[in-house]
Amino acid sequence: MLPRGMSFDAWQRIGRHVLNAAESTSWWIGDLLVYGQHAYGDRYEQAIARTSLDYQTLRNYAWIAKKFPLSRRRDKLSFGHHTEVAALTDEEQDTWLLRAERLGWSRNELRRRLRAARIAGSRATAAPRPDLVQSVKLQVSVQQHDRWRAAAEMTNQAMDDWIIETLDEAAGGEFPVLHGPGGEPAGEDQPEQG
Known about the structure:
By secondary structure, the protein is an all-alpha fold. It folds into 3 domains: 15-67, no CATH class; 71-126, no CATH class; 136-170, no CATH class. 61% of the residues lie in helices and 0% in strands. It has 8 helices and no strands. Helix 1 (8-40) crosses helix 2 (42-49), helix 1 (8-40) packs across helix 3 and helix 7 (142-154) crosses helix 8 (159-170). It starts with 7 loop residues before the first helix and ends in a 24-residue tail after the last helix. Residues 173-183 and 185-194 have low confidence and may be disordered. Residues 173-194 are annotated as: Disordered. InterPro entries: NovE/LmbU-like (IPR049735). It comes from Saccharothrix algeriensis. This is LmbU family transcriptional regulator.
């Protein structure tokens, strides 16, 4: 029970400690399960079957703990952040976690960015037709160029990739493809069908 008359600051401090402990329990459970798998084999399976926790949840905790040894875990990010990138390669995990940490992304923001990158990546690997690709030339100040380059480096991206990602995000994500006559995407000289 919490003491009566506790100051707001004390209440906030306690809250931070409780939330940090709650966040840590996912890692602790995962590490405990990984240890049990290696040390006890079949008896481990029997033991987890007796817990009140969902088997799939426990499997997920163990999987994430295996994917991220202690040396690769980022203290400033949640277990949920690590879960979002777990299916990626180690290098991709590190890149995305670094971005999330430096830019202060929530788990939901990281998830949104990953989804946008997957969409952009699938578009980029679809071998665009040269007649459907546009080049854009920009004239910017040296300060803008340096600031953009630094931002791209901070996210481990080439500057042109960073600019495209940033513009796509500013534009609100994907836009529907408008089709012209013959089913081809509508260009400037092709009126919209509708």
